Amino acid sequence: MPHTPLTTDNSAVVLIDHEVGFSNLIGSHTIEENLNGTLALARTAKLFNLPLIVTAAPEDFPAGPLYPELARVLGDTPVIHRPPLFDAFENDRFAAAIETAGRKKLIMAGIQTDICLALTALTALDRGYEVYIVVDASAATTKETHDTAVMRLVQAGAIPVNWLAVGSEILRGWVDQPLAPAFGELIYEHLPSWRHHHVANDAIAKYATK
C-alpha cells in the first residue's frame, strides 16, 4: 500500500486505558517508561492540535482513574468512560467519537497491548482505518506479550511507531516550521539524552574555536 504521511489533517490520537490500576500489571516496560511515552504522545497531539480520543473504564472500576499526570496534560479533553468492554468500538460513544473526528489515520496506544489496544485496533482496521501502534506509549504484562501483540497487529496491517516518530513525521523538519521550537522542547523534556547531545555539541563547537 502506498505510504501517505501523517499530517494534522488526516490523523487522530487514541489513548486506551492508561489507568493506575493497570499500570501495576505491566512488565514489558517500567511504569516510568510507559508514563513518559504516554505523556509525550498526548502532548504531541495537543501541540499539533490533533483530535484526541481518550477512553477508560468507569472511574470506580478496580483499574482506577487515569494516570494523574495524564489527566493534567489532557485538561478539558473529555474521557469516554465505557463499561469493561475490551474492544472500545463496542461502546457507542467511543465509536461515535472516532467517526466524528473524521480522520483516516488512527495513532493508537494503550494498556494492555494484547487486550484492549489489540482488539480495538483490529476493529479499526476492519472498518478501513489506517492504524499506527505507538509502542512506547503501550504496555503489557511481559515484553513477550507486548511484542507478540504488536506483531499480530502488524500482520493485520497496523504500522508500529514511537511517539517521536509520530511527531517528527507530522513536523516534517526543523526548517520553516512554526512549531519546531515547541516540539524540540517537548523532545528535550521526554528524551533528556537529546538535550545532553546538543549541549555537548555546542561545547565542542565552542572549544574548537578557541
Task: Please give the CATH architecture of the largest domain.
Answer: 3-Layer(aba) Sandwich
Q: How much is the radius of gyration in Å?
A: 18 Å
How many discrete domains? 2
Amount of beta strand: 5-15%
Question: Main β-sheet: number of strands, strand sense, barrel status?
Answer: 6 strands, parallel
Distance between the termini: 53 Å
SS-based class: alpha/beta
Principal-axes shape call: globular
Organism: Actinomadura pelletieri DSM 43383
InterPro entries: Hydrolase_YcaC-like, Isochorismatase-like_dom, Isochorismatase-like_sf
Protein name: Nicotinamidase-related amidase
Pfam families: Isochorismatase
Short description:
The protein has 210 residues and is α/β, with parallel strands linked by helices.
Give a description of the structure.
There is one protein chain. This protein is of the alpha/beta class and 210 residues long. It folds into 2 domains: 161 residues, 3-Layer(aba) Sandwich (Rossmann fold), CATH 3.40.50.850; 38 residues, no CATH class. Helices cover 49% and strands 13% of the residues. It has 9 helices and 6 strands, in the order E-H-H-E-H-E-H-E-H-E-H-E-H-H-H. Strands 3-2-1-4-5-6 form a 6-stranded parallel sheet, with helices on both faces. Helix 2 runs parallel beside helix 3, helix 5 runs parallel beside helix 6 and helix 8 packs across helix 9. It is globular and about 60 Å long. The model has no long low-confidence stretch (mean pLDDT 93).
